[in-house]
Amino acid sequence: RKITHPPPRLFLSNSTSALIIQGSTSESFHAGILHEVTVISVVRRCVLAFSLLDFLDCGRGAPVRMECNNPSDFRIEADGVVYAARSLQRSPQHALVLLVKAIDGTTQQQWTTQVRMEPPALSSQQVTGNTDLMEISFPSRRNSQLKRMKRDWVIPPINVPENSRGPFPQELVRIRSDHDKSRALRYSVTGPGADQPPTGIFIIDPISGELSVNKPLDREHISNFHLRAHAVDLNGNQVENPIDIVINVIDMNDNRPEFTHQIWNGTVPEGSKPGTFVMTVTSVDKDDPKTANGMLRYKILSQTPESPTSNMFTINNKTGGIITVAAGLDREKVPQYTLIIQATDMEGNPMYGLSNTATAVIRITDVNDNPPEFTAEMFSGEVRENRVNVIVANLTVTDKDQPNTPAWNAVYKITGGDSTGRFSVPTDPTTNEGLVTVVKPIDYETSRTFVLTVEAKNEVPLARGIHYPHLSTATVSIRVMDENESPYFEPNPKLIKLEEGLMPESALTIFTAQDPDRFMRQKITYSKLSDPANWLRIDPNTGRITTIATLDRESSYVKNNLYNATFMGLDDGKPPASGTGTLQIYLLDINDNAPKVFPQEAEICEKPEPNAINITAVDGDLNPNAGPFAFELAHRPFDVRRNWTITRISGDHAQVGLKIGFLESGIYEIPIIITDSGNLPMSNTSYLRVKVCQCDINGDCTDQQHIMAAGLGTGAIIAILLCIIILLILVLLFVVWMKRRDKERQAKQLLIDPEDDVRDNILKYDEEGGGEEDQDYDLSQLQQPDTLEPDAIKPVGIRRLDERPLHPEPQYPMRSAAPHPGDIGDFINEGLKAADNDPTAPPYDSLLVFDYEGSGSTAGSLSSLNSSSSGGDQDYDYLNDWGPRFRKLADMYGGCDD
Prior knowledge:
By secondary structure, the chain is mostly beta strands. Among the domains are: 64-116, no CATH class; 158-250, Cadherins (Immunoglobulin-like, Sandwich); 258-365, Immunoglobulin-like; 373-481, Cadherins (Immunoglobulin-like, Sandwich), CATH 2.60.40; 488-588, Sandwich (Immunoglobulin-like), CATH 2.60.40; 596-693, Cadherins (Immunoglobulin-like), CATH 2.60.40. The chain is built from six helices and 53 strands. Strand 24 (313-315) and strand 25 (321-324) form a beta hairpin. The longest helix has 34 residues, at 714-747. The radius of gyration is 69 Å and the shape is flat. Residues 152-259, 260-374, 375-489, 490-597, 596-702 form the Cadherin domain. GO terms for molecular function: beta-catenin binding; cadherin binding; calcium ion binding.
């Protein structure tokens, strides 16, 4: 069939090259290369690949091999992609022709095409003003009205490669309107990259409408731009609807892959099988991941060390996952591997892909594949007898596993030679040695040597398929050394039974010690260590024990009938050893204690109700040498049986009562004869002291009787009463003196005697008046009396303790609301009389309130400074009419000249 191709454009991904397929012709064929002649313009250097694109096999399915006539400069892959094998530099005056041949692998049929690469020439657009630029026209209008663009009408986007080197500005497209034929128009674009940030990237010629890019673009910064084109007339009126223009930034391979970490750390157990996952490394590429520019491939460049092989690991070229591919990982030989990992974009193509490297450190973790092994088959040690918690031998082992891990830590176990469990083998956590330790005393006379079998294992089991070697078991020989052991008493304690009351110098028993050192001939001497009552003596050579005092069961040193004494046996070894033994003497009771009455004192009322006292018999002996007891009153004095009676209640208790209904207060001693029930009975006369006293309603003795019962005589009681009386008299005298002193103070005269000269002396009153409690007056009365209520003329206030009793308040005169100068004298006289008759007036100087004098008084000023007459011209006799308080003043100033 005949296929005609329009002239296409192909922009390749290299910032230094631009390959343009400008045109081709086709022939009719069934299979082969569509373009017989392909012309490619080469700008500067060409180092990248381009594709022949249209090779059709028409479904033949046979393999096709491609060749070119210049293999030193170009290389063709099986998929028809042509690569520049080296950097090309051609003269602008000559063109390079490349012949490409496709050969059918089955029929050997051949097809040929020609690729002509020639230097670029100035296009007609650059010469004539870009008349061949692709134009974008505004939609036509109908009926002189702007027609809205349909929503499904989309202008193809404009593709601009990133990182272009210009020259700038570089034209992209021409915007035009059909109206520019009839009138002058102005074109503009708006949007990000034009008039919005980032501004200045795209510019448009307002007259020709040519849209240009003003600087290189960066897809990783902004991948596309959305602009809007406008057309207006010279008056600024819109003549076309705005159209949207999308500019896509074509990605170019301008970013290397970047690993997220420069050093990657991973672990894998030693002995892992091939295919064991180790770790994953990742890298990122800022280029478009949908294109080959951002498609990464991984590979391992090197492995250090290369043991046991150089390819112990492999990596998934797409995911970056590292796995093992060979067996033989041994931490004890190679503890760590270092891999150099490379990531390459362009799907890993080594010719034109960009690469980067990182380091992967793989640490081989330990597993328990090495059992502990003893450094020797035989170990030896020695220990002295009777020693415990001592180390007698150190067992050393070797283990190739990682130190201080469960696979290295050794655990020791005694498997033979220690049937009595006298040894243990703990592990030293620092050195991993086995410490053979004695945990139970060893007797030289019983066992002189021990041969132990010890096994060593790790804390965790060995890895599968590994068995413990022969050297994991060792033999330990231990020699026991003899020592001078302490003598021991047998039995200890030793118990003997004796009756109390045994006389001094009586033999008790022989208490001897034995020497455990059967292979040593030693002598033992004895001594006394503890004898609380100092009753015993021991023979130092024979161990015979005799008494040196009478044994008494009722002694305070005897507890629960047992008396304990401690003795020591000392041998003559080097060094000497000693042992102790305890002798327990169980003392049997005899009837050697007479009974007594308890309690020995009691109280009873003069008229007792009831009139009985309960008593108890106590005996230091035990039954049958104690109760039951017999009670009876003594025959003397004779009044005992006349006044008292005794009645047995039980074997240990009796009741003492009065025969008479009344007994005078006092202390009485009642003799009571008590007999025990021993084989040879013992009797004793005990005295019961009874206090007879006067009792209250509760049956208790009164206080006075208690005092008498305590032993106070009549003289002491009288002395106490006299002291109480004297104390009361002193208190009374003090009170009388205080009263008298207060009366003298109240009777003190208000003024000095007439014969004293007030002008030449300093008067001493001794009393300046009371404080706040004495000033029992209301200062508000000095105000205008017309405003006061009658009830508030003289408030009660606070009174002194020595003040006279309260009486009805006197009625002081009240002035009328309108004062008259003529009656002020009468008013003052009435006030003075009321004050003199007031029983509540204090006996000291105080403020006496009369009334408000008012203004305009005919009496004039009282001040002597304002007086026109001298003091001698005045008549003071009227002071006698003012009461007894002013009579002294009248005598002083109103009398005769002498």
